């Protein structure tokens, strides 16, 4: 197998996928069997500057280059081959946000990420205008909020895109987005698989009085669907990606996608009645719909699969950040008393201990709001832990309540889909950091959603693997073969996952916790006001 892989690398019969996540940039190289051959990653964190969550342009390129370098170094170390060519490349990134450039291809303002809850006015106006839910983090909400704020850079915009679209543009020269990513920029017409023209006209009419020198359709990326070619690596792009100069130009790219789309692909959740949940810094569930929803819900986004099928998305800005902070505190304590504990062992111990807690967390309450939370209408957040004098306060319940609250906001959205809209789901596929400790995240998620939760053996590969699969689909699909057919027959045919069904006692316990969670939101609001 090692020799076969070496030959594949030397002959360029591999595919490269890179995804820019919230805390990690990961590069994955896969072979013709779709199995990862090598990987490289780079850790990074957003910064809060002038009340904006952002990543600097320097950090973006440093992270992309470092993750690629680590992958290439691993290829050299394992197989003795210098990575010079691949069959195809795909880039993915955090969805939404705001990256606006001028005619010289320079960013006009620092990257505004999905994490910013600063577009409430714009979101409300556009949702009412379109009769279509426009969340605060969507690119069009950021653009319209900038217009409402009369920001100086607006007249100089020639292109507005997302993080994945920006990287793709710089490497290929093509101003395009995959339809799944584009659906978080502006609403999509499912029939034309393009931006909704009626809504574009409405937006242009809305901003006409501002006398800007562009129409919306002139500055948005072109929409492509999975399987289409999206440009080729330029000479300048090759040098930008691989600072050693070894990587050769001319490699085809698939359409850049968002982390939601690549999560669907990586969990084989692109067909109707399937769904997946990605749980890390943020948490979001994607459910591929059989029918449109009965009405507009502010808690539910409508996006698409990379092929253009309608998806309901319940998204929470906050998931594991506060949970990780508490775990780091326990790690610090262990060091203070002279005990060195392996990080993985610490997480495994604390997470498994949570399963021994009371189903309702013993009456404890917590909010892991590191940032604002649109699902519960908070522009900013304060992590908060609360208990009464008669709560059952022990370590198991303490860990359990922080696992529960990581999914609290998500459950509000999912209850709309599963209880009010009666959407049918056979199971949810889980991936992301919450599921790394075997069985724990699954059990908690199953209790929250009252749906069986599966984690595939490949789920740990994440979105970088997902975008590599999309690049492979572009290269290898047969005629009109659908993406879901390709995944079922070529990628996941022998891959199995472990499924955990909800325990009725845990489901009941989670519902009791949610009563406290919803009733206690004013406590969280008071904490924000007090700790300004």
Characterize this entry briefly.
The protein is α/β, with parallel strands linked by helices and 532 residues long.
Topology (elements, then pairings):
Blueprint lengths: L1 H9 L4 E6 L3 E7 L5 E8 L3 E3 L2 E3 L2 H23 L8 E6 L5 E3 L18 H11 L8 H10 L10 E3 L1 H10 L3 E3 H4 L5 E2 L4 E2 L1 H10 L9 H4 L2 E3 L10 H7 L15 E2 H8 L8 E5 L3 E6 L12 E4 L5 E7 L4 H16 L6 H12 L10 E3 L16 E3 L8 H11 L2 H13 L7 E4 L8 H10 L3 E4 L5 H15 L6 H9 L5 E4 L3 H16 L1 H10 L2
Parallel strand pairs: 1-6, 6-13, 9-12, 14-20, 20-21
Antiparallel strand pairs: 1-2, 2-3, 4-5, 7-8, 10-11, 14-15, 15-17, 16-17, 18-19, 21-22
Q: How would you describe the overall organization of this protein?
A:
The chain is about 40% helix and about 15% strand. By secondary structure, the chain is α/β, with parallel strands linked by helices. The strands form seven sheets. The protein has a seven-stranded mixed β-sheet with strand order 16-17-15-14-20-21-22, sandwiched between helices. α3 packs across α4, α12 packs across α13 and α15 packs across α18. It starts with a helix and ends with a helix.
């Amino acid at each position: 197998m090692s020799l076969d892989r070496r030959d594949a690398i030397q002959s360029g019969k591999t595919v490269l996928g890179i995804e820019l996540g919230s805390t990690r940039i990961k590069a994955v190289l896969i072979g013709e069997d779709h199995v990862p051959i090598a990987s490289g990653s780079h850790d990074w964190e957003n910064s809060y500057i002038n009340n904006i969550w952002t990543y600097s342009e320097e950090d973006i390129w440093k992270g992309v280059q470092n993750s690629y370098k680590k992958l290439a170094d691993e290829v050299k170390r394992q197989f003795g081959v210098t990575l010079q060519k691949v069959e195809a490349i795909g880039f993915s990134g955090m969805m939404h946000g705001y990256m606006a450039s001028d005619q010289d291809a320079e960013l006009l303002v620092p990257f505004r990420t999905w994490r910013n809850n600063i577009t409430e006015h714009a979101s409300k106006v556009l949702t009412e205008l379109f009769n279509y839910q426009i969340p605060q983090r969507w690119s069009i909400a950021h653009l319209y909020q900038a217009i409402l704020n009369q920001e100086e850079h607006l007249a100089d915009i020639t292109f507005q895109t997302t993080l994945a679209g920006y990287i793709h543009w710089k490497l290929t020269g093509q101003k395009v987005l995959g339809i799944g990513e584009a659906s978080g920029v502006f609403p999509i017409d499912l029939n034309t698989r393009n931006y909704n023209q009626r809504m574009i006209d409405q937006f242009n009419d809305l901003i006409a009085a501002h006398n800007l020198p562009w129409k919306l359709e002139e500055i948005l990326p072109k929409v492509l669907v999975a399987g289409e070619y999206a440009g080729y690596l330029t000479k300048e792009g090759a040098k930008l990606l691989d600072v050693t100069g070894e990587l050769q130009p001319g490699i085809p790219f698939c359409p850049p996608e968002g982390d939601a789309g690549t999560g669907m692909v990586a969990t084989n959740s692109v067909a109707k009645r399937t769904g997946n949940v990605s749980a890390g810094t943020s948490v979001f569930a994607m459910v591929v719909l059989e029918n449109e929803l009965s009405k507009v819900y502010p808690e539910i986004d409508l996006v698409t699969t990379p092929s253009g099928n309608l998806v309901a998305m319940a998204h929470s800005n906050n998931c594991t950040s506060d949970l990780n902070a508490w775990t780091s505190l326990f790690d610090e304590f262990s060091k203070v008393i002279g005990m060195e504990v392996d990080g993985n062992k610490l997480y495994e111990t604390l997470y498994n201990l949570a399963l021994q807690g009371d189903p309702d967390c013993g009456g404890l309450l917590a909010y892991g709001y590191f940032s604002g939370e649109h699902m519960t209408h908070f522009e900013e957040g304060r992590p908060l832990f609360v208990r009464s004098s008669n709560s059952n306060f022990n370590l198991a319940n303490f860990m359990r309540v922080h696992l529960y609250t990581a999914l609290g906001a998500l459950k509000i959205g999912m209850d709309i889909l599963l209880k009010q809209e009666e959407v049918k789901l056979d199971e949810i596929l889980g991936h992301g950091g919450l599921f790394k400790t075997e069985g724990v995240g699954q059990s908690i998620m199953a209790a929250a959603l009252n749906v069986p939760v599966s984690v595939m053996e490949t789920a740990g590969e994440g979105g970088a693997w997902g975008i590599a699969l999309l690049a492979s689909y572009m290269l290898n699909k047969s005629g009109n073969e659908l993406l879901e057919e390709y995944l079922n027959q070529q990628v996941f045919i022998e891959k199995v996952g472990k499924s955990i069904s909800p325990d009725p006692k845990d489901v009941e316990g989670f519902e009791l916790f949610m009563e406290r969670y919803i009733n206690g939101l004013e406590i969280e609001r008071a904490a924000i006001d007090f700790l300004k």
